[in-house]
Amino acid sequence: MFPGPTLEINNGDTLVVKVTNKARYNVTIHWHGVRQMRTAWADGPEFVTQCPIRPGASYTYRFTIQGQEGTLWWHAHSSWLRATVYGALIIHPREGSSYPFPKPNRETPVLLGEWWDANPIDVVRQATRTGAAPNVSDAYTINGQPGDLYNCSSKDTVIVPIDSGETHLIRVINSGLNQPLFFTIANHSFTVVGADASYIKPFTTSVIMLGPGQTTDVLIKGDQAPARYYMAARAYASAPTAPFDNTTTTAILEYKSVPCPAKKGQAIRPVMPSLPAYNDTNTVTAFTTKFRSPQKVEVPTEIDENLYFTVGLGLNNCPKNFNSNQCQGPNGTRFTASMNNVSFVLPSNFSLLQAHHQGIPGVFTTDFPANPPLKFDYTGNVSRSLWQPAPGTKVYNLKYGSRVQIVVQGTSIFTVENHPIHLHGYDFYIIAEGFGNFNPRTDTSKFNLVDPPLRNTVSVPVAGWAVIRFVADNPGVWLMHCHLDVHITWGLAMAFLVENGVGELESLQAPPLDLPQC
Predict the structure, then answer these.
(1) Which one, of 306, 229, 301, lies nearest residue 271 by Cα?
(2) DSSP H or E segment with residue 352
C-alpha cells in the first residue's frame, strides 16, 4: 500500500507490530511522536536505538501509548526510505472519554507526500557521491496521489466526501521528505484543534503550514454551496536561493449533494483556492504564533540544563584524495550540516542505545557541546572560516528528571532556512520563537510559561530561533534532528543520553530478544 496502512488505536493501548523486511534495503520503522516511555528499543531510528532490519528479517516493535491523543504517524527511519514508507497513526480517546470539541461526523487522514520519478535511494546516493544538493522532487501527493494539476494523474485524484451541515475532522500530516508545505481548502476555513497528538486551544485560519514530521488536526464545516472544492498543498520555501519543487498537489472535497453534470463525462470543475506565495514567512509566523495549549500547563520554571544549539548548513572543503566530481557543491565544496558545529556521524557496528546499555567503548563520546564552541553573529554575515563543522558521534548526557531548556538558533551559513527540529521520545513546550539572534537579556520577556503548545517538532523560524522546555523523564538515547532528510543526511542531528532514574519504573526496559544485530 502507498501510503501504508493507517493504524487506529485508543489512548492507553499497547501496540505489537511485526515488521518484516521484504525490500532490498536495510529498514527500520519509527513511530513518530510516540513517547516510548522506557521502550526506547522500539523507537526505530537506524543506528540510534537499533541496528536495521536486514532484507528478509523481522523485528517486532512493542510499545504503549500513554496520555497521547490525536494524530501521529509512522515512517521508515533508514536512509531516504521514508519517501515512500509511511502511514498515519491515529490515537482516539480512551473508551468512555471523548474529544474536547463536538464529535465530528467523519474523519479523514490527509498525508502530504513528496514523490520522485526515481528511486529515492539513488537520489540520495548521487548527492552523497557528488557532494552537491540532491535533486528536488517531481511532485507532491495527497494520500499517495499527485492530483489534477500534473500530467496523466487526474483519473486517480483523491476525493474526500462531505455533506452539507457536517463537521469533518481532517488530520493533516506532512510526510514529505524535504519540504515544509502550505495546505488549504477552497472557500472553507479551518478550526485548528490539535497538533502532534496534543490538543490546541481552537483558532481559525484559512491556511496551515506544516514542516515535515508535523501533524495538524483541523475541523471544517460543510457550510458552502454543494460543489467540488480543491484541497491543495504547495511548498513553503524559506531558503532564498535554494531550488525547490514548485508544483501543487490537489485532492477534491466533494459535497454529496453536488448537482450532476448536464452531459455525461463533464465533471464539474472544482473551485481552486489561492495559496500563499512560496516565501510567505509572514503567513507562517502569524500561524505558528497562534498555537496555545487549551488550558494552563505545568511548564518547568527551574532549569537544570540551559542549552544553546545552533542549527544550520555548512560547506566542507574538497578532501585531498577526492576528485572534482566528488566536490560539486558551491565553488568545489561538499555540502554538510551541523548542530553546535558538530556534524553528526551515525555509528555502523552498534546502535548508540546498545553501546550505552552494554557499555561498549569507542562507539560515541559524551562531549556534545552545551553551547556553540564559538560565539558569532549567527544570522548575520558569517565568516567563511566558520563554514566547516567537525564530524563526530557525540551525545549530551542528561540526568533523569532534569529540567531542560534549549534555545534552537538558526544560522545563515550558506543560507538561512526554516528548520523543523524533531526530538525523539519527548514532547516539549515551545515557549517562544523569534527572528535574528536569541538575546537572553531581552527575549526572555517573550516566554509563554502559562499555556505554550506541546509539540514533538518545532519549526525554527527562518533566520531565527525557538525556545523549548521539557523534563528528561524517559531514559534512553534520543535523537534530535532536522526533519528535512537532506539535512539529517548531511549531519544536522545530535542525541541525548538520558540516564536511568531510581528503580524499575524510571529505568530503560531490557532489550527485546529479537532486536536486530548489526
Answers:
(1) 229
(2) helix 352-358
